[in-house]
Amino acid sequence: MHYCRFCNNPLTHVFVDLGHQPLSNSFLTSDELELPEITYPLKVYVCDFCWLVQLPTTKNADEIFNEGYAYYSSYSKTMVDHAKEYVDMIIPRLGLNSESQIVEIASNDGYLLRHFPEGFKLLGIEPAEGPVIESRRKGIPTALNFFGTKFITDLYSSSHGVICADLIIANNVLAHVPNLNDFVEALKMALAPDGTITIEVPHLMKLIEGRQFDTIYHEHLSYFSFTTLCRIFGAHGLVVFDVEELTIHGGSLRIYAKHEPSDWFSDKTRELLLREGATGIITPPYYSGFQWKINQVAVSLNSFLIANQELGARIAAYGAAAKFNTLLNYCGVKPYLIPYVCDASPHKQGKFLPGSHILILKPKALKIYRPDYILIAPWNIQDEIIEQLSYVRSWGCKFITAIPRLEVL
């Protein structure tokens, strides 16, 4: 029996079952292709009490975010631009200055903190060694650690000082946290009395509406509605007083939280709570039928790949993103259908995708092999990729995406 990581009630309602899959960021070397490959169940539940959608923990976090962790945010122009826009917005909104303490959790390679002006008091906290090294090279103080109450307590009992943050940033990390209550309690401990927390998470409502099942993988343990987020933070004495709906990652929420009590809530918080309620997001029927919808995605993609292979078309992919591995492995796509995927990150090039064993090449391979179609794996940044690869149009190459439905662009 599995239990909810927030309210600890039994989990009995399956939201979607994606079978057994390898870890999405466990890229393989050529030698590892000859070895057995470990897979884990990718079955997602919804709690019938607090309505948190969640994947039971199958791997310890330190086994995922280790020295081989291959995701570096700075390789995405979309992510870097988004980070700069955030910094340019949040400094005047909160009246931040060089005396303000700013902490980012899961700061990766410093892609966001680097945009704050010189002289600001910055601290990044990141569990993966490779991104920490890159962040420190940028001159950003970065702790190699997991964030939680133990981390905060250890700081208090050491000579390294304490965190009393005027701003805590936690983008795309809450979904990765196995001990959700400990993490949110640590946010409260680290926040200054008048401080603000901003957190970005993919919006569950957009995931369901857009059939975004590829965003489900073992690193992502929780999937949040705004309603459930407010409950989680409220249980720890933090109030969510504002929210923004963002287009990034296929539809995300940026929530603003602070210590209770609060005498002000934005109209957007009330409106979104009402809108989610109107969809039935806290009722079982809302979560039914998703499995059938994603099966239609799988059928459409396989049919397209097989039909065009029979016609002699050359098909490649671009972007060795974690979400691509969920898509490929659920659909059963192998190298005979897509022989290679190109990616700009040198940390992935020359390796193979887990499960499908598709080879990862440098982007210049597209000019050599001249495919007829390129499947865009990270569809959430498809505009950026199409612009980068516009030269492929010169030989008649077309772009395709698979989610929410197969589309030739």
What does this structure look like?
With 409 residues, this protein is an alpha/beta fold. The chain is built from twelve helices and 19 strands. The protein has helices spanning 61-64, 77-94, 129-137, 149-156, 180-190, 204-209, 226-234, 267-279, 290-310, 322-331, 365-369, 382-388, and strands spanning 2-3, 10-11, 13-21, 40-46, 53-54, 101-105, 121-126, 142-144, 165-171, 191-202, 222-223, 238-246, 252-259, 315-318, 340-342, 359-361, 373-376, 398-401, 407-408. The strands form four sheets. It has a seven-stranded mixed β-sheet, sandwiched between helices. Strands 16-15-14-17-18-19 form a six-stranded mixed β-sheet. It has a four-stranded antiparallel β-sheet with strand order 3-4-5-11. Strand 4 and strand 5 form a beta hairpin. Helix 4 (149-156) runs parallel beside helix 5 (180-190). The N and C termini lie far apart (45 Å).
Structural class: alpha/beta
Largest sheet: spatial strand order: 8-7-6-9-10-13-12
Number of E-state strands: 19
Distance between the termini: 45 Å
Shape: globular
Low-confidence stretches: none
Characterize the main sheet: 7 strands, mixed
Q: How much helix, percentage-wise, in residues?
A: 25-40%
Secondary structure tally, helices? 12
Strand content: 15-25%
Whole-angstrom Rg: 21 Å
